[in-house]
Design goal:
A six-stranded mixed β-sheet has the order 4-5-1-6-8-7, covered by helices on one side. Strands 2-3 form a two-stranded antiparallel ribbon. The chain is α+β, with helices and mostly antiparallel strands and 163 residues long. The protein is built from three helices and eight strands. β7, α3 and β8 form a beta-alpha-beta unit. The protein is 18% helix and 27% strand.
Length: 163
């Protein structure tokens, strides 16, 4: 299966899409100067329909972390927190971009008293009765600490960050 990361809070959090990704219509892509294989598109496709083409200048930028509403309803079964608001963390979080996640967490802790960063494993067969929760001050949250949680083999795991 796969890993599911989310942030949970007592207050609503804003989505933060990947700023490097553009979603374009066929005509917008052509205007932008992108070379398209127009034979790939059926003649009946509306060339002005938004969201047909996903474009990013550098492929590595596709892995920049983003924060979005949880769209896959099956993931709701995996949410362990009691906090009312959750937002999914997507992307390949590593040393070069962990600061984006740390900044997002710190910004949202400042709006409330605490928040939780969860890592769970999506697997119908494995539903542990326990989970690790580690308390940490916002001042002690670093890229290294976040990566330690993300790269740990412990599932589920929660980092509860407080002011």
């Amino acid at each position: 299966m796969s890993r599911f990361l989310y942030v949970a809070s007592d207050h609503q959090m804003e989505e933060q899409p990947n700023p490097y990704v553009e979603v374009l219509s066929i005509n917008e892509a052509i205007e932008k100067g992108l070379e398209l294989e127009l034979d790939m598109f059926n003649q009946s496709v509306d060339r002005d329909k938004p969201g047909v083409i996903l474009w990013v200048e550098d492929e590595e930028k596709l892995e920049v972390p983003e924060f979005c509403d949880i769209e896959n309803k099956e993931y709701y079964d995996e949410i362990i927190t009691k906090k009312p608001y959750c937002i999914e963390v997507q992307g390949n979080i590593r040393e070069s971009n962990a600061d984006i996640v740390v900044s997002y967490i710190k910004k949202n802790v400042e709006k409330g008293q605490e928040l939780e960063f969860w890592k769970v494993w999506l697997d119908e067969e494995i539903r542990p009765d326990f989970h690790d929760i580690e308390l940490i001050s916002i001042n002690d949250l670093t890229n290294e600490k976040l990566l330690e949680v993300i790269n740990s083999q412990t599932y589920p795991m929660c980092l509860r960050i407080y002011k």
